[in-house]
Design goal:
The chain has three helices and five strands. By secondary structure, it is an alpha+beta fold. The radius of gyration is 14 Å and the shape is globular.
Amino acid sequence: MNYFSPMMSEKNLSFDLKLNSVALKTDIKKLDVIFDNLISNSIKYSNENSKISLFLDKNKFEISNFGEKIEAKNLNDIFKKYARFSKVQAGFGIGLSLVKKYSDELNYKISCKADGNKTKFILEF
């Protein structure tokens, strides 16, 4: 979490952490890309002065933030390569497609839920 501190402090964000110790037999490089992208995006798209919640147990990882609203019609396409829905933040629309690709390769299930300005990504092991 220290790695993300500079980005967090720029927007005065804080983490709400509920992280249990977990041992997974997996490709750590791919899992690192998944975690890095989900956490970085959560920071990038969070409202200033808000909290990012992270939950980890032996079955899943969840991350949620309050920020730019994702329209329900866009949820089906959020993991497609080059998909971009933000008019505020820059990006190429590649990160979440990598998250999906690596999740599939590791036999994990990735999903996204949006409710108003709250977005939650769920990675099931």
